[in-house]
Design goal:
single chain; globular
Length: about 80
């Protein structure tokens, strides 16, 4: 089952966006990938998105489980895995 993508416009602080892109580049990621991962983690674990330690944990999880993040799954499958 192919995952469909949808274009979304976000208004971001220019400096924050640039700094995030630079940091994410070190992980081999782009901003879109990071936003998708954070949204997926939020749905899966009902994470409070304002907690910085969780952000670091998600990045580490991504590095440790990169392959599992790259396989598309349905929302139902995703909810069951949490």
């Amino acid at each position: 089952m192919a995952t469909t993508k949808e274009r979304t416009n976000l208004y971001l602080n220019s400096e924050l966006k640039r700094a995030a892109q630079e940091k994410l580049e070190a992980y081999g990621m782009n901003l879109s990938s990071f936003v998708n991962i954070m949204l997926a983690k939020f749905i899966q674990k009902d994470v409070d998105m304002l907690l910085p330690p969780e952000t670091e944990k998600v990045l580490k999880d991504f590095e440790d489980e990169r392959e599992s993040f790259e396989k598309p799954i349905s929302i139902d499958e995703f909810k069951k895995s949490g």
